[in-house]
Amino acid sequence: MQISTGSSELRDITKMERIGVHSHIHGLGLDERLEPRGNAEGMVGQAKARKAAGMILKMVQEGRIAGRAMLFAGPPSTGKTAIALGMAQTLGSDVPFTMIAASEVFSLSMSKTEALTQAFRRSIGIRIKEETEIVEGEVVEIQIDRSATGATKTGKLTIKTTDMETIYDLGNKMIDALSKEKVLAGDVITIDKSSGKITKVGRSFARSRDYDAMGADTRFVACPEGEIQKRKEVVHTVSLHEIDVINSRTQGFLALFAGDTGEIKPELRQQIDVKVAEWREEGKAEVVPGVLFIDEVHMLDIECFSFLNRALENELAPLVIMASNRGMARIRGTTIRSPHGLPVDLLDRVLIVSTKPYTEDDMRQIIEIRCREEDVKLTPEAATVLTSMAVSTTLRYALNLISCAQVLARKRKVESVDVEDLRRVYIYFQDEKRSVQWLKEQQGSLVFEEMRPENSELMDTR
Ligand SMILES: Nc1ncnc2c1ncn2[C@@H]1O[C@H](COP(=O)(O)OP(=O)(O)O)[C@@H](O)[C@H]1O
Ligand SMILES: [Mg+2]
């Protein structure tokens, strides 16, 4: 069976940037010796956990670790998700990093195990070496003949190297591509023969005096030597999941854009695994184990956990990172209570890293970083007040107030957010503690649900 890995443009589009509450995180902020720097790459404090994360990453990058798992355990808003994203940023674009929230597994229109399998296969990269044939040379002449109606075009492209000159016939598609790239005589171009993609390399030195045909940023290059048609080796990385989807007959590659991939047949996966093994033997492909991050992992149920146990033993397993803010909690789908809401046999496999509540100084610095990220100015007094709010409520609540307070400051037509704005948003928006207090005061007028008293599962913040 023919297994395709898709075209390179397709692969570029399916990788997306994440923005939002963690957009200030650009890495783990470690130096070469893996020592955490005080305030670097958007990261503050939480030194031990960052260092542990850095060590694990080092092993991933050296390809020494696969089929392992680690767990970030700590109270809410202590940077578990932030550190995982920092790890993703450090990995580089070549190593796949997949992030899912455990509850996603239940909401997709597929079985839980299929959703997890897809997440696993998304996190395994296959680095493929391919030879493609390209045409490279300096354009001597482009000649285009239009039919009387202008609907069809034919043409000829004359292209040369220092050693030879060839004329190619052009079809409609190539003519459009050439005019889109604004290719002129004197440009040095490459054409990928399989995809027809045209790349302008620069302008030939020989034409450096045609001042009418260039802008300020024109790059001059020498006219290429040797054959016009060359073979070139290109290396790219695709995930196993992408290969699955591209080759699944019912879905096709368009499903990658829609994100709606449906279930993939196990037989297809088997064929692909066999093919990948063949490629590895032939030296055509390398496996790049990536990272799968499962946030709020206590939301998985016992069936998922047993699947994880099994999947981690697979030869093609990524590093699995989990995060949980539970202390002793019931394992979903059972009546058993267990640390972090994870069954003990899974806990036994994982390296546990705990995250601690932040100090006041750390919080002040994180607030500062977020203000810079959101382009908000605080007066020094406001910064102090917001920090003390973070201490008495939570860091996340304080970070949420930044943009709200800015709306008020703008309404007052002032540059910087002041204490007065913070005080007002503090009244408008309640934090968790005040909301609970309010609920208690409202006993009777709101609708309450009866429940057995067993709700001390969340890790204590103090
Ligand atoms: N060490 C840190 N440095 C900078 N920002 C942080 C750090 N830890 C947490 N944050 C920010 O604080 C907020 C809450 O952290 P988050 O990682 O979501 O907490 P958790 O996942 O542990 O509940 C996020 O906006 C996050 O980016
Ligand atoms: Mg989180």
Automatic annotation (TrEMBL):
The organism's place on the tree of life at top rank: Eukaryota
EC number(s) reported in the record: 3.6.4.12
Signal peptide: none
Domain AAA+ ATPase: 66-357
Subcellular location, record wording: Nucleus
UniProt KW keywords: Activator, ATP-binding, Chromatin regulator, DNA damage, DNA repair, Helicase, Hydrolase, Nucleotide-binding, Nucleus, Transcription, Transcription regulation
Entry's Gene Ontology BP terms: chromatin organization; DNA repair
SMART domains: AAA
Short name of any one Pfam family annotated for the protein: TIP49
GO cellular component: Ino80 complex; Swr1 complex
Single annotated GO MF: ATP binding
Family from the record: Belongs to the RuvB family.
Subunit organization: May form heterododecamers with RVB1. Component of the SWR1 chromatin remodeling complex, the INO80 chromatin remodeling complex, and of the R2TP complex.
Functional note: DNA helicase participates in several chromatin remodeling complexes, including the SWR1 and the INO80 complexes. DNA helicase which participates in several chromatin remodeling complexes, including the SWR1 and the INO80 complexes. The SWR1 complex mediates the ATP-dependent exchange of histone H2A for the H2A variant HZT1 leading to transcriptional regulation of selected genes by chromatin remodeling. The INO80 complex remodels chromatin by shifting nucleosomes and is involved in DNA repair. Also involved in pre-rRNA processing.
The protein's name in its UniProt record: RuvB-like helicase
Source species of the chain: Cylindrobasidium torrendii FP15055 ss-10
Origin organism lineage: Eukaryota, Fungi, Dikarya, Basidiomycota, Agaricomycotina
